[in-house]
DNA sequence: CGGTATCCCCCATGATACTG
DNA sequence: CAGTATCATGGGGGATACCG
């Protein structure tokens, strides 16, 4: 049980650590799904992303994409057609993040049943 | 519900998919840190967790732990001393999740600098 | 000590309408 | 089609006080 100092420099449990911000960004519901979708389907237009991710509003989609663009995770390309065409693509950094996100997604998929079972058991033990 | 399925598999981009709930739970800021801490340090008391995770309030800690307990990720043990002693431990399911979370954490560590650089570049390009 | 209950505020988010 | 602006709201989460 060593401490979890990867580099000895930063500790993610401390508020000022940049990783905390990174994890916070990743933690965002829509962000994960956006990355997942781009990873699975490659370059997509804004509208395609919107219809691919059920329930996301344009506002949230744009916001997520801006954040990801700022972090260097996605690249935004504008083609000056009329009407304008905008596409989003994962950068190399984004692709590497996509792999990590895929790991989480895979874990969720593989253990979904266990979790649902655990929830049922927990809930049943409480309603009586 | 049928629309939630693609080739017999669940699609995480659909709202009703259980993986979405799982990812949502994982996405929670504190939850990730709680799992990380338990993974790194093993069984801990409530107070130890609270002081290990900078900035978390008791309310949020308890809430996170309850959710994780419900999902079968952590086990809660109560020793009837006076005052009462409560410890939390990752279950086998929780340990496997811990590995996935560690992957994300490692990614964050490794690419922190790239992200910070990307942000600076992005911000500079916008302030005139 | 660990947890619950209560109050309350504020920000993230949704809805809507509008521009290029 | 992609994005911005504006307003309203609700619930997430902080502070506090109190139980077992």
Chain-wise SSE layout:
The structure is a homodimer of 128-residue chains.
Chain A: H1 18-27, H2 29-41, E1 44-45, H3 46-52, H4 58-70, E2 74-79, E3 85-90, H5 92-124
Antiparallel strand pairs in A: 1-3, 2-3
Helix pairs in contact in A: 2-5
Chain A binds a DNA duplex (20 and 20 nucleotides) through residues 45-47, 57-60, 62-63, 78, 81-86.
Radius of gyration of chain A: 18 Å
Write down how many β-strands of chain A occur, each being a DSSP E stretch of 2 or more residues.
3
CATH topology name of chain A: Arc Repressor Mutant, subunit A
Q: Could you report the average pLDDT of chain A, rounded to the nearest whole number?
A: 87
Count of discrete structural domains of chain A: 1
Structural class of chain A comes to: mainly alpha
Strand order of the largest sheet of chain A: 1-3-2
Global shape of chain A: globular
Order of helices and strands of chain A: HHEHHEEH
Oligomer: homodimer
Our measurement of the CA-to-CA distance between the termini of chain A, rounded to an integer number of angstroms, reads: 40 Å
InterPro entries (chains A, B): HTH_HxlR, WH-like_DNA-bd_sf, WH_DNA-bd_sf
Domain HTH hxlR-type (chains A, B): 17-116
Keywords (chains A, B): DNA-binding, Transcription, Transcription regulation
GO molecular function (chains A, B): DNA binding
